[in-house]
Design goal:
By secondary structure, the protein is an alpha+beta fold. Helices cover 43% and strands 25% of the residues. The chain contains 7 helices and 11 strands. The protein has helices at 59-64, 85-94, 96-122, 125-140, 153-160, 164-176, 192-198, and strands at 6-10, 15-17, 26-31, 34-39, 45-51, 56-57, 71-74, 78-83, 144-146, 180-183, 186-189. Helix 4 crosses helix 6 (164-176). The radius of gyration is 18 Å and the shape is elongated.
């Protein structure tokens, strides 16, 4: 796959591709992070995924040949490898392991989207926020989160399918209840069990 890929370097906040544009190919992140999101006609943003190093994106478009289903933008300076749809098709037909890996990845992504739908439909904002904080703490392997590290209130709102004011209110409630503590640019998880209860897990 590496022999068919080309490396691309992006600045922080740079668009990788736009929703609705022709298939841009298959992408693998080597360094940095990217976010996949959709935007409503009113400008509301819903973050679907945050792509970390070692992970891929745009499997749906590269598989069915349709337009890009969402917009992708870098969060940090990023190095991303791109393989065209035609080249990936040749590789997938030649190497069954590639086809199976793509199928497994799309299944995981579909399962994640089902989780997003479940959260939006069944969990209130405070529960969705508690779940997000637990997931981010687990990802960072520590009990505190840097609010500049993709966790501004605006970004949390985009990931939770709500508005910044609701996130601010939920943060204050979780802090008053003793589940978290906010210090400058850090959110510290004080009581993980309580946060799990709030997340309805």
């Amino acid at each position: 796959m590496a022999s068919h890929a080309r490396g691309l370097t992006f600045a922080p906040g740079e668009m990788v591709f736009l929703e609705g544009d022709p298939c841009a190919g298959f992408f693998v992140v080597e360094r940095g992070r990217c976010k996949i999101f959709k935007t409503s006609a009113e400008g509301r943003e819903q973050t679907l995924h945050v792509i970390l190093p070692g992970h891929s994106f745009n499997e749906v478009s590269v598989s069915d040949g349709g337009p890009n289903p969402a917009t992708v933008m870098t969060v940090d300076e990023a190095v991303i490898w791109n393989i065209s749809r035609d080249d990936l098709k040749v590789l997938a037909l030649r190497y069954p392991a590639v086809s199976w890996a793509l199928l497994e990845h799309m299944a995981r992504r579909a399962r994640s989207l089902v989780g997003i739908v479940e959260d939006l439909g069944l969990r209130p904002v405070k529960a969705r926020l508690a779940k997000l904080l637990l997931e981010e703490a687990e990802r960072s392997f520590q009990g505190e989160l840097d609010r500049n590290d993709l966790l501004t209130q605006q970004e949390m709102a985009a990931r939770l399918g709500t508005v910044r004011e609701m996130v601010g209110r939920a943060l204050r409630t979780l802090m008053d209840e003793g589940a978290i503590k906010i210090e400058r640019h850090r959110i510290i998880i004080v009581d993980q069990d309580l946060l799990r209860q709030e997340a309805m897990l």
